[in-house]
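Attaching the record inline, Q. Sequence:
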Amino acid sequence: VHPNVSQGCQGGCATCSDYNGCLSCKPRLFFVLERIGMKQIGVCLSSCPSGYYGTRYPDINKCAKCKADCDTCFTRNFCTKCKSGFYLYSGKCLEKCPDGLEANNHTMECTSIVHCEASEWSPWSPCTKKGKTCGFKRGNEVRVREIVQHPSARGNPCPATSESRKCIVQRKRCQKEGKGKKNREEKRKNFNKDESKETRQESKGRAARRQNREQRENNNKTQPKKRKAPNKEQNLAPVDTAH
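Structure, as predicted:
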C-alpha cells in the first residue's frame, strides 16, 4: 500500500488519501468525484446525485455525468428530467417539441395535442316567451350540450354549448295563475263540507230514532196495564116485553 493511502477511512470509503479523499468504496456504494474549487475529491454515496447516473462494474461502482441539458438520467442517452428551458420527449431533452405535440410547461414534457369534445345536442325545449308557454304566437326554443373533453393549449377550442331559434305556436289564452288551483281547492272543501254535513245529519237521525225507541220501551215498562172494561149489555136487566 502506498504511504499516502489509508484503509482506516470514514464515510463509506474502502481506501482513501488525505489529499484526494476516497479512492475506492465499500460494496454497493457509488464512487463519484466532487469538485471543490480547483480540486476534485472522491466520495462514496448510496445513490448518484442529480445530474449523474450509476454504472456497476465488478471492481467498482461509478457515477457518470448526464448530458448537459439533462437534470436526471437513467443512462447517458436516456434522460428522465430536463433542465430548465428544455422539454422531455422519449428520453431526450428538446428546446422545441416535434410536430403534432405541444410543450407542457407544468411537467416540462412534450405531450399530445388534445382537442375539445362535446356531447350530442339535447332535444329542443318547449317554445316559450318571457318564461311562458302561452299568450303569444312567436317565441324561442333552445337546446344544449355538454363539454366532455376540454382542450389542451394547442387543441381546437370548444364550440357553443347552447343554441336558440325562433318558433311559432298556436295562440292560446293563459289560465290565470292560481285560479284553477283555487277552484279545485274550493270544490274539494265544499265536497268535504257537504259530506260532513250529511254524516252529521245521519248521525243525529240515528240518535233521535234510538232515543225515541228507548223512550217507548221505558214507557211500556212503567205504565200499568189497563183492565178490560165490562160489556154494558151484559149488566142491563132483562126487559119484560109481555106488557
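Residues 48 and 63 are 6 Å apart (CA to CA). The radius of gyration is 56 Å.

More tomorrow.
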